[in-house]
Amino acid sequence: MGGNPLSAIARWYAAPPHAARVPDARVAALYPWYRWRALEATFLGYATYYLLRDNVPVVAVEMRNELRYTNEMIGDIIAVTALCYGLSKFLMGALSDRSDARKFMASGLLLTALCNFAFGSITSYYGHLLLWGLNGFAQGMGWPPCGRVMGHWFSERERGVTFSIWNTSHNVGGGVAGIFAAWAVTRYGGWQYAFYVPAVVALFGAVYLFWRLRDTPQSVGLPPIEEYRNDYPPAANEAIDIERELTFRELFIDKVLLNKLVWLLAVANFFAYITRYSMLDWGPTYLRDVKGASLQEGALSKTWLEFGGILPTIFLGWMTDRIGGRRALVAALCMLPIMGAFIGIIYAPPGYLYFDYLMLGVIGCFIYPVINLIVIAALDSVSKKAIGTAAGFIGLFGYVGKAVGSKAFGRIIDTYEVSLGQQAAWSIVLYSILACAGIAALLLGLMWRARPRS
Hints:
Order of helices and strands: HHHHHHHHHHHHHHHHHHHH
CATH topology: Growth Hormone, Chain: A
Helix content: over 70%
Oligomer: single chain
Structural class: mainly alpha
Number of strands: 0
């Protein structure tokens, strides 16, 4: 009865079999209820993931002072989790396309909570590197099951608005994360509580996901979304909804690696993620070192960035549905005000913190629609059964970009702040970010004709 433990784990995580078909008379009543559960659980669950991912930048100054870390060491900690997260998102994407989203997502949240507890309990730099790398790997179990659930419960024709609504979950989670971490440190004393308190919340979140989330419509006896929405003629619908899970070769090779559009979007995502995470990872430190902000004022930089993107992400996602799915075109145009906002931050003198907040809000207002639309554009070009794999591949490039930026910016500051001064060193960083934003705009502009497959 022993068997192979890995086989037992694989069987437990495997996508659930199709349940007995519910009577047609009940489909109209059950489908909206389950669709709401899918959106609610993935939204709240993924927002909770962010409470345990973006807490290091908030307490970077405290860790730097108490543990005598350099800016480059802080950058290394941020970079290692980005690399591990990107790799995990790619690998877990393919696994999640063949797994039960409920068990997959809940397990990942439990693991990331344990990593946060451990991170706060030690003071070793190499221990922090290891644990934050493991945390990044566990965090990779968050997005792919959400993509699977959203792709199966909402059709391609409503993808722009529904994915955009769900995508704002990381704005909510990321925006709350900074305030929450700063509050925990102020309330309980010590940078460690920026990790302990969110971890407690995540334990309850894992239980909630296991109770609330469901995998596909077929797993609860409902018809596939194309049939329910009547989006395709019956013959085409039968071809689209193949009653089997794709092989790893079909997922990795046929649907993703041989897709030229996915590759171009992935490279654009590399530069877009440097632009996105530059101020999320270094904004609190920048405002405190250069603009004289306090712990709470520095933490607010993340809130302005994250909350600034909520309504524009939803609106622009909805708009791309109305203009025939031109996701890349809209994303390219969004990069222009982002570049203007970075120029504003560079030339704003100390003492005008609310102007910096305004510019950060502009960046958030437009960078999050870009990140959202890049992923949707990739999903438009692949099968819904390969959503996790495609998103994981795109995400891998993005988080490699985040890692490169985190490592490079920390080194630039440490290298040049002595010889050139702190403000000049940060100016080099900000001009580098500006160049990355311009490259992302150019690459996205090359795809302005791209539309969904259907």
